[in-house]
Amino acid sequence: MTIKTIAFALLLSLFVFCEAAKKEEFVLKASNFQTLIKGKRTDLYLLKNEHIEVYITNYGGRIVSLLTPDKSGLMGDVVLGFKSIANYLKANTPFHGCLVGRYGNRIAKGKFELDEKIYNLPINNNENHLHGGTEGFHNQVWEVVAVDQSSIVLTYLSEDGEMGYPGNLTVEVTYTINDNELSIAYKATTDKATPINMTNHAFFNLAGEAKGSINDHLLMINADHFTPVGEGLIPLGEIRAVAGTPFDFTKFKTIGRDLNQLESDTQLKLGGGYDHNFVLNKESYDSMSLAARVIDPKSGRQMDIMTEEPGIQFYGGNFMNGSDIGKYDTKFDYRASFALETQHYPDSPNQPNFPNTILKPGETYQTKSIYKFSLAD
Length: 377
Known about the structure:
Layout: H1 3-11, E1 35-37, E2 40-42, E3 44-48, E4 53-57, E5 62-69, E6 75-77, H2 85-90, E7 99-100, E8 106-107, E9 111-114, E10 117-120, E11 129-130, E12 143-147, E13 151-158, E14 169-178, E15 181-190, E16 194-195, E17 199-200, E18 218-221, E19 225-227, E20 240-241, E21 253-254, H3 266-271, E22 275-279, E23 289-295, E24 301-307, E25 311-315, E26 339-343, E27 358-359, E28 365-375
Antiparallel strand pairs: 1-2, 3-4, 4-5, 5-6, 7-17, 8-11, 9-10, 12-13, 13-14, 14-15, 15-28, 16-27, 18-21, 18-23, 19-20, 19-22, 22-25, 23-24, 24-28, 25-26
């Protein structure tokens, strides 16, 4: 069976209304994702089992929707997204659900030195480079090389000099569902030394898209330290203890509990809230371990994030302003979603005491993160 035949069969299962007793009103149509960008065809793909449904488009390798049951058994959509490629293209916040690269997070002033050469990257976040630049991985059409009901394999060739980065970088990302888990496996090789730090930028609300503030979600981050920032949210190079600060999520607390310290805590003020990298507690550098756990008390949904990465960026939706309208025709409001991006630390190419992010010829970049959905005890 060809990829095209399998994809067509999967897309036949997309529909507007599902069983009312088991699933919320659903709005995705495959035809709204079938177009050409830069001469490459985009589409929508479904991974599905009895526990989880994940809709992915090869435009930016994005998670468009992720459906999982609440405590009543109702399947609900917990990832923010749009209902057409056209809406993704005109979005004010361009990173919804996408694969991020070559370098997730910020690089100070868009510059780094490698092998005695200075590289200049495009500036797209105040005076800094963010998430690979305006034409980063989020804005590319990925090739679908394999797909079935449980996994999809996407590839992309980032050519030498793309967004200022050296080397032809061949990237492969595999999304897989197994029981109640979604895993994302990243793999890359290069013909020149280059920085790489890939992640996925899904925005979550475990109550459901556009179901209100996430400040009452309970959050635990398995990190005794974080990387404090200066102006422009560039790390200072310091590894700071979270104890005694609003950044202590080592035990469950609501996301909003300490936001009343926004004006008195310098780090919160710089980020407009939480927009910081946490240094994960690890038994060994690249071991798979629990990074974060989130619970929505209302729906009962719980999400555990496991990763081989050394860090995770927690972003509390501080810059959302309602200017984007999601797939359920509701606004993406201030602090109505959060992101937890598994990653290496921001600005690592300019921070010699941070873990290495340089991939060299002959090496393979390989990392995996897992998102597990369940009901809280």
